[in-house]
Amino acid sequence: MIRIVATEMMGKCPHAGKKHSTEVAKKMVAKYPKSLQDVIEGDIVGKGYYSLVKQLQYRIENAKRTSTPKIRKRKHQTESDDTDEIPLEERAAMQDTYGCIKWNPKFLPRGETQQSQQQKLEKLKMMFLQTNVSPEEIKCLMKSTFYTQRQHVNQGKSIQYLREEWPFWFDELGMSVHFKELTGNNLKEMFTRNLDLKGQRLLNYMTTVCAKKSKKFLQTYARLQRMRGQQSGCSDDVKELVLLLLSYFDEKEESLFFYVDNTSLPEEVQLEQMPLTPTIVVCGKSFISNYLNNFVNRICGVTVLHVNLSTGQSCYSSRSFMLSLDRTLVNTNISSFISALCLMFGSYYCFNIHYPSELASTLEFLQRCFFSINPEKGTKVENKNSKRRLNVNPRVLTLIQELSDHEWCEA
Questions:
Q1: Distance between CA 33 and CA 95 in Å, rounded?
Q2: Residue 38: exposed, middle, or buried by beta-carbon count in 10 A (0-12, 13-18, 19+)?
Q3: 2 near 56, Cβ under 8 Å?
Q4: pTM of this prediction?
Q5: What is the pLDDT of residues 306-332, one digit of tens each?
Q6: Contacts 24+ apart (CB under 8 A), 19-23
């Protein structure tokens, strides 16, 4: 179908570009949405026609490509040349505001003053030192001081400063309030809901289709086999899901996870070896070992009991995970992997952090399919060059297409 449509387009306009492909794809999807729309478990991805635009564009580019190699002259680039249609400052702001609905509130809440905001800030700091505090009161205070929190982060305050001034912001309760105000979505609730809807289908596809056709998965298995441990009995589906996504997109595990001994104290963690971006510190090797055991069982056809994906409780110790931002440990007591994953992801939005290019596909897939942040335009990925990016990552679109086409049934 793509070949036929692309041929017809080029017959009408030999130099058909993305603008033409977009218009054609939009009309095709409008006429046949059930067959052509970008959907995963009922959720439309972007505007719903980006994958069709991508396929049409690739086909037109291939048809126009000649067999005669072209000699291209290298352009001397100066600092003034390092611009696209949008200045760097505006591009950065676009990445900061990506997916947000209240990125920079203009006015204080009704009835609030700068003095009252400061008083509530101090009260939150005092409550953080207490053991018996009301979660509802914390939520109320965090919500009413959202304006000041955004002012601080948008002014470029350091993570260390924010950690000292807003300690609850880096806990699950405080970040969920800020994330809800910022994006309109519940952080952990949205993730667990989508996990129950889509998680098993994604795992099934990766542990059957991908494992059989991709050497990368088998290489991952061989590498992790040497790290096999003895601990078992935990729910590993969510951890397995993330590791398989990293493997599928060929992205670096060490950019997302930093492993330390199970007995390591926070002050013993070698922060200088960590990435600057949000990183989950994993205490102990059981995380990898359990992933491996489950993964091998699936490949070998061994029956695996279904585990509820929305449970992420760890059986290791009370401090199984920590969170690092800007090489600073901001939370040293996270007992479940799902909580750690949500805190890591939420940090990108709460603190104006761009996705690193080495994790671009994995984070965008999690963003669109599990956290339901689905902007039609823009990107959260750091821009290391002037090359323009598509509104939806092509690799993410490809995986969504493959999942939509994949037929499976539960055992």
A1: 30
A2: buried
A3: yes
A4: 0.74
A5: 334 444 443 334 458 999 999 999 999
A6: 21/53, 21/56, 21/57, 21/60, 22/49, 22/53
